[in-house]
Write a structure and sequence with these properties.
Layout (H helix, E strand, L loop, with lengths): L12 E5 L2 E4 L4 E4 L2 H4 L8 H13 L10 H13 L6 E5 L2 H16 L3 E5 L8 H5 L17 E4 L4 H7 L4 E6 L13 H14 L2 E5 L13 H4 L6 E4 L10 E5 L1 H4 L13 H16 L2 H20 L3 E7 L2 E6 L4 H11 L1 E2 L1 E2 L4 E4 L7 H15 L1
Parallel strand pairs: 3-13, 5-6, 5-7, 7-8, 8-9
Antiparallel strand pairs: 1-2, 2-3, 4-10, 9-10, 11-12, 12-15, 14-15
């Protein structure tokens, strides 16, 4: 038997369509995890499939030093939908690479070393991004990691003001923490981070790998707080499941970003898929739909679950249900007994990240199932 590293679930997925996945035995599952928010427009959206397969027939790959229409179109589209003046785009293959680039760009542009990250934050598993990830379980056995990183309490504006100084290259944080437990910050906190970095000449990096692309009810979570960072990173749902990420920068970062590159930066096929994904999100108003459906789903969960859970929180269709016991059994029972797939966010939080295309009937099905399993 061949070996593998990844921990596998006992469900072999064979196909996907919209908000549903089907396993090798023909059992259909309502997908409320979207593979960690990787399918915002649903599985195998025909427009994304057509864009990717059409590009495959013309040119499968050419390195980024050669201009290509699909890549150029994606550059322009990302700059157009980016908040504020984040007009410069670097493409890569994943969220951790987007964050790795952000950290490198910030250090080069400022000439400084110190990086400030937050408790419960998660930014990736490469040696650089892992240094800015909070939980020790991800780091055990991989040290020493990149140096110069300090952690401050997420949500504590005073602690952030005290930590940011003239030696700080960047502050990196999520505008709504995902892996750390679906922890939303206040607008005042994010604006305090913006003010502190501005005053110190440091870069503010917002990790929107999971929160972006309409997930929290606007194209970017930053927009709900009226905050424009110096660097914004995105990935996961950008290619509807194909591997693509992006680092969006202000001019002062981009013009002094140093020497950075990637062999597979913005390949034609993933660029075509990403552009089609953005087209669908914008044309179908999926950010606004996520805002509406998220409010409905959170309200129904609070009404039905009441004191049986500690909390229901989140924004848009990025929702955490904090339970009183471990979430693993709940996830198992939802999958086996109700054919619903969800995710954990820490030991006691059930994470719901469905495709942005869900309707009330899907939300009602999930609420009924969670209430039955918890009850």
């Amino acid at each position: 038997m061949s070996g593998f590293v990844f921990s596998e679930k006992p469900i072999e997925i064979a196909s996907g369509d919209g908000v549903y996945l089907t396993d090798a035995n023909g059992t259909e599952y309502l997908d409320f995890g979207a593979s960690y928010a990787c399918t915002p427009v649903g599985h195998c959206h025909p427009e994304v499939v057509d864009a990717a397969t059409g590009q495959l027939e013309d040119l499968m790959y050419v390195q980024a030093s050669y201009p290509h229409a699909a890549r150029t179109a994606l550059y322009e589209q990302l700059a157009e939908v980016a908040p504020g003046d984040l007009d410069d785009v670097w493409l890569c293959n994943s969220g951790t690479e987007a964050n790795e680039a952000a950290l490198k760009f910030a250090r080069h542009a400022t000439g400084r070393e110190k990086i400030i990250a937050t408790t419960q934050g998660f930014h990736g598993r490469t040696m650089g991004t892992l240094a800015t990830t909070w939980k020790e379980k991800y780091k055990e056995g991989f040290g020493p990691l990149a140096g110069g990183v300090e952690f401050v309490e997420y949500g504590d504006a005073d602690a952030m003001r005290e930590a940011v100084d003239e030696e700080t290259a960047a502050v990196i944080l999520e505008p709504l923490q995902g892996e750390g437990g679906i922890n939303p910050p206040s607008t005042d906190y994010l604006r305090a981070v913006r003010d502190a970095t501005d005053a110190a000449g440091a870069a503010m990096i917002l990790d929107e790998i999971q929160t972006g692309l309409g997930r929290t009810g606007s194209m970017w979570a930053a927009e709900k707080h009226d905050v424009v960072p110096d660097i914004l990173t995105t990935a996961k749902g950008l290619g509807s499941g194909l591997p693509v990420g992006a680092t969006l920068c202000r001019d002062w970062i981009a013009e002094d970003s140093g020497d950075h590159g990637s062999t597979f930066s913005g390949g034609p096929v993933v660029s075509a898929a990403a552009s089609a994904t953005l087209d669908v999100i914008e044309r179908e108003g999926l950010a606004a739909h996520a805002d509406e459906m998220g409010s409905y789903l959170r309200g129904e969960l609070r009404d039905r679950l009441g004191d049986d859970v500690r909390d229901v929180r989140g924004d848009g269709l990025m929702i955490g249900v904090e339970v009183r016991r471990g979430s693993n059994r709940l996830l198992r029972d939802l999958a086996i007994d109700h054919q619903i797939l969800a995710l954990p966010a820490g030991r006691t939080v059930l994470r719901l990240l469905p495709p942005l295309t869900i309707e009330r009937e899907h939300a009602d099905t999930v609420v009924d199932a969670i209430a039955e399993v918890i009850g």
